[in-house]
Amino acid sequence: xxxxxxxxxxxxxxxxxxxxxxxxxxxxxxxxxxxxxxxxxxxxxxxxxxxxxxxxxxxxxxxxxxxxxxxxxxxxxxxxxxxxxxxxxxxxxxxxxxxxxxxxxxxxxxxxxxxxxxxxxxxxxxxxxxxxxxxxxxxxxxxxxxxxxxxxxxxxxxxxxxxxxxxxxxxxxx
Length: 174
Hints:
- This protein is mainly α.
- It has one domain.
- Helices cover 97% and strands 0% of the residues.
- It contains two helices and no strands.
- Helix 1 (2-112) packs antiparallel against helix 2 (117-173).
- The longest helix is centred in the first third of the chain and has 111 residues, at 2-112.
- It starts with a helix and ends with a helix.
């Protein structure tokens, strides 16, 4: 009986070992499947993040290209304003010069037609006073035109500077 008992115990032990091996094999397969799923999820997540970074980089590049284009357009606009302003200032200076030359020519005729030396000196003094007043008035007008021109020319550049600072401040604030 003892050999039957031993054989029976051996069979039970073999069955238990087989069951344990089957359970261990199933646990290993489950762990392998779980690891494969985890690695697959990690690869998918990494791929999605790489795609997001690529899209963000492309968008950032496009933003910079547009920003540079808008900055260049603002510089061109400012240059156009300056050119037109210089043209206006030049026209004003030419008109003043023409008026001064006409006044000088009229003075020369009046001096040549003066009856006395005193009349000629009075004409010259009056002309000098008027010429000085006109020069002061003209310089004030040119100053005002120049200040206005500077303000108008800088406006597009200031607007672009503000937009650029705002554009680059957004990522820093986030």
